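Anyone opening a protein record will find just a pair of labelled lines. A complete record is shown below as an example:
=====
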Amino acid sequence: MIDATDIRHGRHCIFNLHVHLVFVTKYRRGVFTGEVLTELRDIFAAVCQDFSAELVEFDGEDDHVHLLVNYPPTVSVSALVNSLKGVSSRLIRKKNYPSVRKRLWGGALWSPSYFAGSCGGAPISIIRQYIEQQ
């Protein structure tokens, strides 16, 4: 069940949109340390704020990260992902972390692909049943 505080309001809409994102490092190299993951969390939160989105949850391992983002309907997921990956890659490489510098080359931090899954709300079967009954 959706908590009333989770529902956001826009000028002409009411929404509760969440997306689960997974980004993998280039060549699936294990380059993230605790320090880098902490820095990534701050970068992702700032980028989300620029899009009027909210980084709800973040975690990662040495070769990939998971994000749960609450975003407004005015933002496309692809634009959000492009900015999240681009800004984080530029800023992490600028910090020149040894774990990243040694294992990656060519200016790329992330693999060009990503996973995006919608989440939250009722299961599809319940929504289908609701629509059929209207």
About this structure: The chain has four helices and six strands. The beta strands are 8-9, 14-15, 17-25, 54-60, 64-71, 110-119.
